[in-house]
Amino acid sequence: MNGFSTTLTAAAFILAAGAAQAETGIMTGTTSAGPALTDSRGMTLYVFDKDSGEASACYDKCAANWPPLLAPAGAKAEKDFGLITRTDGAMQWTYYGKPLYLWIKDAKPGDATGDGFNGVWHVAKPQD
Fold first, then answer.
1. 8 A C-beta contact, residue 70 and residue 82
2. pLDDT tens for residues 64-90?
3. What are the φ/ψ torsions at residue 8 (nearest 5 degrees)?
């Protein structure tokens, strides 16, 4: 690939990532666990095995440690990203129906220290 083609390919990727971020705030990033979904700050997103269907099972102390990825007022589901209503009425982003969370012990973008935690927390991996 010549330099011009590489530059065009990189620019197209950046534009596509920017569009996803503008709509949901969710991006794909590189973490210590490999490719993962991240929030708009680059912090790793996780899924929880104990969630059932499109409902969160993470509240109270769980949600203090694993904050749900909340959607702003007026957010709309699109493509692979949906929304669920939490018991407090807040809207939480989902990916293929699985609610998304952050982990308070991740200190910086790229950390994935919650992956495998208690055997029920996993990095949210982008699907092909």
1. no
2. 999 999 999 899 998 899 999 999 999
3. -65, -40
